[in-house]
Amino acid sequence: MRILYSLQFALIYVREVVLSTVRIAWLVIQPKVDLRPCFLEVPLDLKGEFPVLLFACLISMTPGTLSVAFDRDRRVLLVHFIHEPSPDGAVAEVKEKFERPLLRIFA
Questions:
Q1: What is the pLDDT along the chain (107 residues), one digit of tens a residue?
Q2: First vs last Cα of the chain: how many Å apart?
Q3: Adjacency order of strands within the sheet including 38-43
Q4: How many Cα atoms within 13 Å fall on the side-chain side of residue 92?
Q5: Rounded to the nearest 5°, which phi and psi values hold at 65?
Q6: What's the CA gap between 46 and 81, in Å, rounded?
Q7: Exposed/middle/buried for residue 58 (C-beta within 10 Å: 0-12, 13-18, 19+)
Q8: Are residues 67 and 77 in contact, defined by beta-carbon separation less than 8 angstroms?
């Protein structure tokens, strides 16, 4: 079952990378760049060093986001978004698109 979840997540991740690339390219070609960068704390439900490391790497490999720091005590990952017009929904989106599938894979 983990193999099926892994393959499904790989497809979702490739789609997210393509969409993020298009979003960043669109921002770059705009005549007036109106970026709204921000740092957001993403509370983690993932357990274990490897799943957390994988989550942080996947975020960093997605255009427009970068994992900056991990607070082990609070289990929070600090993520920089190059352009996030709605910071409130960004954390929920990252958890839904990236962490939730990883939770299924590493459960």
A1: 789 999 999 999 999 999 999 999 999 898 888 889 999 999 999 999 999 999 999 999 999 999 999 999 999 999 999 999 888 899 999 999 999 999 999 98
A2: 11
A3: 38-43, 76-81, 65-71
A4: 4
A5: -130, 155
A6: 21
A7: buried
A8: yes
Nearest Cα residue to 99 out of 54, 49, 38: 54
**How far is 102 from 85, CA to CA, in rounded Å?**
26
Residue 77: phi and psi, rounded to 5, are -105, 125
Under a CB-based contact definition with an 8 Å cutoff, are residues 25 and 106 in contact? no
Quote the strand ranges of the chain, DSSP E. Answer: 38-43, 65-71, 76-81
Nearby residues of 79 by Cβ (< 8 Å), 6 or more positions away: 39, 40, 41, 42, 59, 65, 66, 67, 68, 94
Per-residue pLDDT at 85: 85
Alpha-carbon span 18 to 16, nearest angstrom: 5
Alpha-carbon separation of residue 99 from 25, 28, 29 (angstroms)? 25, 28, 31
